[in-house]
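Appendix B. One record, verbatim.
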Amino acid sequence: MSTILTHLPGFEDSIHDSQRTFRALLDANARPGTPYLITASMSVPSGLTSACAAACLTLLDLDVQVWLEPSFAPQVKAWLLFHTGCRFTQEPGKADFALIPDLATLPELSSFNWGTAEQPEASTTLLVQVESWSGGQPVVLTGPGILDKRAIAPKLPRHFWNFWEKNHLAYPQGVDVLLFTEDAVMGLPRTAKSEVGHNS
């Protein structure tokens, strides 16, 4: 069993890779809608992008519960368990983090934990993989960390932005989202307000 898992190592340079990845995640959350490169080098199981895998190694540990979207291959769960020791839950409402390979297959997002009025920070953080930062529904973001406004168009299904409007209105409750391409992260904290544009 161990040989199956360890042939895909974690960070090649665990201290520096985790520090750089954590800095990218912090910057992405502080400046919503701006992509930040994640440069960590590693081998990852099929279905997981390098950037998202690096974030998992940085954020997950023995104390967190993770909801894995069921379409992930079993080796993803095995790799995360081996490298982070995290626990898994099949109930979205109990997850600290949710790992999602494609939002198009997950139409219902309100089942995750939105936190409470007393503990808004207890909500789920969604780690979502996207194909690219372009080609999706044009959206304009405003809010803390955005100087004026920021136009983005990551490849996300339209229903995500309908959900996001409700999520923002629930502030200070609501989920936070980190979007990942193969080598970068973009933050969407619940404070970011979205206005859907028009394809033209």
